Amino acid sequence: MTAGLAALTIGRAAYNRIAAHALKCFPEECCGVLVGTRRAGRVHVAHAVTAANVLPKRLRMRHFEIDPAVLFTLQRTLREGRHKRLRERVVGYFHSHPLGVASPSGADLAGAHEVGLVTLIAAPEQRTGRVTMRAFLRLGDGAARRFRPLRLHIEG
Ligand SMILES: [Zn+2]
After folding, report:
1. Domain span at 72
2. Residue 63 neighbours by CB under 8 Å, 6+ apart
3. pLDDT digits (tens, 9 = 90+) for 53-111
4. Interval between CA 15 and ligand 1 midpoint (Å)
5. Neighbours of ion ligand 1 (CB under 5 A)
6. 49, 81, 111, 122: which has the fewest Cβ within 10 Å?
7. What is the distance between the alpha carbons of residues 2 and 15, in angstroms, rounded to a whole number?
8. What are phi and psi for residue 28, nearest 5 degrees?
9. Per-residue pLDDT averaged across 1-26, rounded?
10. pLDDT tens-digit profile of 114-147?
11. Where does 41-105 have alpha helices with state H?
């Protein structure tokens, strides 16, 4: 199913939240969780949940680790209420590349543990306030482990 996936839609508010977070955290990497739905091979990101980058300060310009407390609380929230009714769940993660471009690094591929989840990368340009975003789907295992680029559509 995931093999046929070619596009990711993201709500305008979620998109803006990621862009703002990437600029705010500059020159460090920001990170967070993408919450939404996956139906008929299409991923939709409804919410972007920002999280602290819990790595030591000296590492945060080139690496990230999502605060596990945020993930824990989020998983509990998703099991109830409106999220549950809408079948929203974690569809992927985002982080920023303040020193580079919005392409995944080797560490990003190594760290993307689950097949079928999205890795969204934001490259903020602090001087202009512009943020470039690209999204990738994790596919394959072992030697076939790879990212496939997704078309990004902003909604609303
Ligand atoms: Zn990265």
Report:
1. 2-155
2. 29, 55, 107
3. 999 999 999 999 999 999 999 999 999 888 888 899 999 999 999 987 999 999 999 99
4. 18
5. 105, 108
6. 81
7. 22
8. -95, 160
9. 87
10. 999 999 999 999 899 999 999 999 999 999 999 9
11. 68-78, 81-85
The CATH number for 139's domain is 3.40.140.10
Domain count, the chain: 1
Burial status of residue 80 (CB atoms within 10 A of its CB: 0-12, 13-18, 19 or more): exposed
- Measure 85 CA to ligand 1 centroid, in angstroms: 33
Which has the closest alpha carbon to 120: 141, 143, 96, 142? Answer: 96
Distance 96 CA to ligand 1 centre (A): 6
Backbone angles phi, psi at 18, to 5 degrees: -65, -45
- Ligand 1 geometric centre to CA of 82 (Å): 31
